[in-house]
Amino acid sequence: MDTFVHHKFNKNLVYHIKLPRYTSILIGLSGGQDSLCMTKLFMDIKKMYYLDIGIISIDHQWRYDTVRNIQQTINIAKDLNVKTYIYESIPKYYSEEEARNIRYQILINTAKQYEYSFIAVAHSLNDQIETGLHHIFRGSYIDSLPSLTWNRAAEHMVHIVRPMLNMHRWEINWFCRYFWLPIWNDFSNLECNKERNRIRQELIPYIQYHFSYAIENNIGTLINNTYIDSEYIRQNTIKLYFQFKHPYLIAINIINFNSQHQALQKRLLYLFFLHHSNINIPYTLLDQLIYKLNKKLVFKISYNQIIIYNNNKWLYLCYKQSIHYNQPSKLKL
């Protein structure tokens, strides 16, 4: 550990990730510079933390060179002498969100099956900024800006960690060059018909040149501050939800609900529907419900497979008769 990147990485593990010793971690390795850098860093501190390390790679078979890419990943894993898990998905077109969901599900299932406590993914500060701008362009809610977090509980006692979330791409590139790491260049990252690539290749350089060279640090600070604020609101929302929910029925107390700020009201309703129906209610419908509730209007609204009923004392959620009570269907947006 003789570089500034090593020291920064170790500091992140201590203060942000809070990685315990004598634990197991599954590292996502694609062959690109970010994942190679993270793998090298974990291998360098393996003895310090007494880590049981495994490597996982997922091939979506989108590019003509993916076979050689996977072969190089296998060769790297053999040199490191660690357990390796290789997956290939059916070659078809997925949206960015669909592909991401597939990857994370494979990561989580593998970690559960082989008893890994942590999954490490190599998102950097630049990835965090690009994701934040992507959410802004989509008109997403402010809570979605800090969507990439240091440590997030997934399921079955598995945590997804991002130990390089404050590292610039130039720092990672320097590290890979310093140690002569065999980077596999993904040429699809240069295709500007993809929104994320255009943000990376065109928008951010344009802002740096014409407005602020420190735009990456500034947006990173904004996202971190937003995360602190939204996490505080999220924790208070959960506390209020358990205070306001009906002890037996699927309902929430409207008298207490109407006494809260609109920011909490919207999050309370979102959590209420997600908890009981596994449905992500659109924000337009949430705004409509909040307006009716604050005006103390009695109403009954049918939405997909649920019925929302208010009598000015309780807001009830009911399933339609064709839907089994214990098996609510997911909303298709």
From TrEMBL:
Positions of ATP binding: 30-35
Enzyme class: ligase
CDD domains per the UniProt record, alphabetical: TilS_N
Alphabetical GO biological process terms: tRNA modification
A Gene Ontology molecular function term of the record: ATP binding
SUPFAM superfamilies, sorted: Adenine nucleotide alpha hydrolases-like, MesJ substrate recognition domain-like
Highest taxon of source: Eukaryota
Keyword Nucleotide-binding attached: yes
UniProt keyword annotation of NAD present: no
PANTHER family noted in UniProt: TRNA(ILE)-LYSIDINE SYNTHASE-RELATED (PTHR43033)
Domain notes for this protein: The N-terminal region contains the highly conserved SGGXDS motif, predicted to be a P-loop motif involved in ATP binding.
Protein name, UniProt field: tRNA(Ile)-lysidine synthase
Taxonomic lineage: Eukaryota, Rhodophyta, Florideophyceae, Nemaliophycidae, Acrochaetiales
